[in-house]
Write a structure and sequence with these properties.
Elements: H1 3-14, H2 20-36, H3 42-127, H4 131-181, H5 186-202
Helix pairs in contact: 2-3, 4-5
Length: 203
């Protein structure tokens, strides 16, 4: 057995380092001596017996103390393991919350962008005239255009009539001039001119 094994074994036997190993050795030696003693007086034997019981009680107390310490350390270990699991769960929850927060932030940015675009579009639309007013204005313009077209046609008709009348007048003037140049046929030509003028005006 190596030195390290001896030291490890002594530490295991000694418990928490309060001399348990030495106490057991002393108890063992006392027990062997007490068992092998034949000429010891009853008072001394009883005293040795009581001392061994006291040493045994101390050893039992040390064992109980070690057991309680081991149980306490086991309980602490379980508590640490439970706490570790709680921390791991908390870390996972925190990670999920962070991811959710990132997603919510991205969604909020998208909503804000859409809202800004909507506000700009709404402003542009609000600056445009109302559809009803636009249709009414368009209807008014169509009515005015139709009226202007009718007026134009009337003016063109009057202009054409005036052109015809002017043409007849010029023709009549030329014919009258011709009559003046030929006195003998004045009455006949005047009748013809008058008939043509009346027919042209009627047309």
């Amino acid at each position: 057995m190596g030195d390290e094994d001896v030291i490890r074994r002594r530490l295991l036997i000694d418990g928490d380092g309060t001399g348990d190993d030495r106490r057991l050795n002393v108890l063992l030696k006392t027990l062997i001596k007490w068992c092998n003693s034949t000429d010891e007086k009853p008072e001394e034997s009883k005293s040795t017996h009581d001392r061994m019981l006291a040493q045994l009680a101390q050893c039992e107390f040390a064992v109980t103390k070690s057991q309680l310490g081991a149980e306490m350390m086991t309980a602490e270990l379980k508590s640490y393991e439970s706490l570790s699991k709680i921390l791991e769960t908390g870390i996972e929850v925190a990670k999920n919350n962070i991811e959710k927060s990132k997603s919510d932030l991205a969604q909020a940015k998208t909503v804000r962008k859409n809202r800004i675009e909507y506000d700009v579009l709404a402003k542009v639309i609000s600056e445009q005239p109302d559809r009803k007013e636009t249709l009414e204005h368009l209807s008014t313009l169509k009515t005015d255009l139709s009226s202007l077209e009718a007026t134009k046609q009337q003016l063109e008709s009057k202009l054409a009539l005036r052109k015809k009348q002017f043409h007849v007048l010029v023709t009549s003037m030329h014919q009258l001039q011709a009559l003046l140049d030929e006195p003998d046929e004045t009455e006949s030509i005047c009748d013809d001119v008058e008939m043509k003028y009346i027919s042209n005006v009627s047309a």
